[in-house]
Amino acid sequence: MGKVSLQLKFGISYILVIFAVLVLLNTYPVRQSQDMVFKSKETSMKSSVKLIEASLSGLKQLDEENVSRALSSMRETGVSRVLVTDTAGRILYDTREENGAVGLYAFYTEVVQALEGNDAFYSYYDATAFLSRAASPVVYHNQIVGAVYAYEYDTEQADILKSFQSNLMKISFLIALAVIGLSVLLSRMLTAQITELLSAIRKVREGAYSHRAAVKNSDEIGQIAAEFNSLTDRLQTTEDARRRFVSDASHELKTPLAGIRLLTDSILQTGDMDPDTTREFVGDIGREAERLTRITENLLRLTRLDSGAVQEAAPVAVRPVLERVARMLTVLARDKGVTLTFEATEDAVALATEDDVHQILYNLMDNGIKYSGAVGFVHAAARTEDDWVVLTVEDNGIGIPADDLPHIFERFYRVDKMRSRAIGGTGLGLSIVKDTVENRGGRITAAARKGASGTVFTVYLPRAQEGGETL
Predict the structure, then answer these.
(1) Which CATH number fits domain 209-309: 1.10.287.130, 2.40.30.10, 1.20.1730.10, 2.60.40.10?
(2) Which sign, positive or negative, has the C-alpha torsion 71, 46, 146, 106?
């Protein structure tokens, strides 16, 4: 089955609704008008029949002579024809001048009902006139002595009703044309916006993330377009970050791989290389492999953080973790000539995992040691502040230029690329710290030391109380 456009669906829906309304408009008022005329006819004809019946009620027996005498002075009755019959149904009186039926028998249903003692009325409309009939018994001392029958053929009321119906049809036709035109216009306007939005979605789906849908108004379609543009902004940002990440990751992975390839080629192509040189080259290959391992592990960690695959948070005492990290980094600090100190309060219990706290402290303290010069220091501290556990790592190293501070948490971003590679940095450590902190509902900031060289990193993690709940 072929696809039906939304515009066609809207158009058909509008037309069906208008058709139903117009059918109702052309039937209900006409039907009500007919009913009103029927009721009016019933009232008027019964009154006329009763008036004639009253003129004959004093006669003990009806015959042609006394009926004609009783009705001779009667004024206009307002009906087309009047018949008076005796108890046998024989016509005694007929107001029709030509082809009168006096002497014949009236076998009308209404006459039979009247002779049985019942008032009768019947009326119908044949699109040209209202045909109405009414009959009533003539009673003398509780005895039925005859019947009065009245007939009316009314074309005036029919003409009025036909004129009313004709006007309704003309009005309905004009309304139908106006509404159909308006519905086509509105459906085109609506579907044009949807078509434009659909076209924008297709372009974005094909990779044109810079494309935006036009927001022409503030109705629901306009709001959808605005939300689509907002989503596209996020997609473009994510796509740019992904491309940059892939490019940087490829570059970072290529560097140690290229070094390993170069070193192995040197070993293989040099037939008389002495053992010490070979050992040195193999050691370089090992260091490049370790660097490659670190990059791979960091990428895997970032992938897990991006996917939201994190362990459930629990209360973690920061001091024991800080002591363990300091012990692990003592040798590195001593080799670099850096003084490593730390302090932590006992109430510094974060709602996270030990791996999270260890990763945060290790990366920040290791980063501080690597970028501190001779006779440098790195100081780590943990304390509480309201509902937060605050971790600070401070160093007196080379510091970070103000222009680079907003970017240091971006993946593979380096302030000094040559120096970072020389000391084995991957450009992922601070990104891992930031993602880890934010996945636990915290935040991290970096700032220059006041009045001195160096950098201060401040981490806020949710504080835990007994039972593992946040304060």
Answers:
(1) 1.10.287.130
(2) positive
Distance CA(225)–CA(198), nearest Å, equals 10
Choosing among 3.40.50.2300, 3.10.310.10, 3.40.190.10, 3.30.565.10, the CATH entry for 314-462 is 3.30.565.10
Kind of pairing between the strands at 130-140 and 143-154: antiparallel
pTM: 0.46
Q: Are 344 and 382 in contact (CB under 8 A)?
A: yes
Residue that has been written with the tokens 């490659």 in this structure = 292
Is residue 382 within 8 Å of 319, Cβ to Cβ? yes
Can you read off the two tokens belonging to residue 11? Answer: 């158009």
Order of strands, sheet of 143-154, starting from the edge strand that comes earlier in the sequence: 91-94, 81-86, 143-154, 130-140, 120-125
What is the pLDDT at residue 171?
84
What contacts 111, CB < 8 A, 6 or more positions away? 83, 85, 89, 135, 147, 149
Q: Which residue has the higher pLDDT, 435 or 148?
A: 148
- 406: which DSSP letter? G
Upper half-sphere CA count for residue 419 (Cβ side, 13 Å): 9
Higher-scoring residue by pLDDT: 61, 209:
61
Neighbouring CB atoms inside 10 A of 264's CB total 13
**Contact predicate 413/401, CB 8 Å:** no
